[in-house]
Amino acid sequence: IDDRPGAIRTAHGGTLLLDEIADLPLATQGTLLRVLQEREVVPVGETAPVPIDVRFIAATHKDLEREVEAGRFRVDLYARLAGLRVTLPPLRHRIEDLGTLVAAALARHAPNVQLGVSPAAAWAMCHDRWPLNIRELDQAIAAAAAVSTGARITLDHLPEQVASRAPAAAVEVARREELIALLRTHRGNLAAVARALDTSRAQVHRLLRRFDLDPDAYRRT
To answer: Count of alpha carbons within 13 Å of 49, Cβ hemisphere only?
Structure first.
């Protein structure tokens, strides 16, 4: 018999997040309701209840009132959960939070690497509508961190569906500004610029021709 305490007993004296509460089966909803009402649980293999002191936070992307009306969510459980309610707007309506969310995602997915984000990649992410919200952003950062071998995430590291949503003209402007900034920083040293972009010198030469830039002009500054 596994005598380890379950999630609720482990959270005793603290807070337990019930994620996607609307997807809980009706039978399990009844069990949870009893826990909320009685503030106690009966461990597996035992008969005596154990009191608990837990603050419950429930999260869902569904409208619980509609779920109750449709008979998919118990009204009595909803009444127990419906205390303080906080509605988070979709990510596309709070792009000002993007920097904080990207930093948190990088800390999770690349904890031992100091990864930055290039201007072009930042532009693409800021202009994306993120239809799947934070989960989509988190997966995009995870994928970019996995394939990046340089010091920062570039547009080429982002999933195609994210990079392609950025306006092409705006991305070109951002890429040109990024290249100019690197030429200034490295005083026209194309090898250093290539390393910063995580690309080859041949690709840097192609970018210089595309954006009509002369590296010699930056060697004198």
So the answer is: 8
Q: Of 18, 125, 121, 135, nearest to 78 (Cα)? A: 18
Separation CA 96–CA 110 (nearest Å): 22
pLDDT in tens, the chain (221 residues): 455 677 888 888 999 999 999 999 999 999 999 999 999 988 777 778 889 899 999 999 899 999 999 999 999 999 999 888 888 899 999 999 999 999 999 999 999 888 888 888 888 898 888 988 999 999 999 999 999 887 888 888 898 888 876 667 777 887 888 899 899 999 999 999 998 888 889 999 999 999 999 998 888 65
Kindly write down the DSSP assignment for every residue of 157-182, as one continuous string.
GS-HHHHTTS-HHHHHHHHHHHHHHH
> In angstroms, how far apart are the furthest CA atoms of the chain?
82
CA proximity to 20, closest of 77, 69, 64, 66: 64
3-state SS class at 61: coil
Cβ(108)–Cβ(163) below 8 Å: no
